[in-house]
Design goal:
The protein is of the alpha+beta class. It contains four helices and three strands, in the order H-E-E-H-H-H-E. A three-stranded mixed sheet has the order 2-1-3. Helix 2 (about 40-55) packs antiparallel against helix 3 and helix 3 (about 60-75) packs antiparallel against helix 4.
């Protein structure tokens, strides 16, 4: 959560996703705690760029970034977004989509 990120400044916090779990209305932002290394700073920067495109529904650009992160760093969260970017253009997400991934099972 954002409270934790404020207290742990010696680490990197990578925003992974915005999710809404079954039975909840308010989405939560999920972060990954990462060691503060050059490699992880590069992964984090690239992933955040990919997320920006993803939330703008620019799936082709986002997918290219996530694919590169997965290929170069074997970054598993990026592989999840590669799959989403492949599926979502065929999905009927309206213009009011808030970027939140809805989990329908607990």
């Amino acid at each position: 959560s954002s409270t934790v990120t404020e207290k742990c400044r010696n680490f990197l916090f990578r925003k992974i996703d915005k999710v809404r779990v079954k039975g909840r209305v308010t989405p939560e932002t999920i972060y990954e705690l990462m060691e503060n290394s050059k490699r992880n700073r590069q992964i984090k920067a690239g992933f955040e760029e990919g997320l920006d495109f993803y939330f703008k529904k620019e799936y082709k650009k986002a997918k290219a970034i996530f694919e590169k992160l997965y290929e170069d760093y074997n970054d598993l969260p990026s592989s999840v977004f590669v799959k989403r970017c492949h599926l979502f253009p065929n999905d009927r997400r309206g213009s009011n989509w808030d970027g939140v991934f809805d989990h329908h099972r607990k």
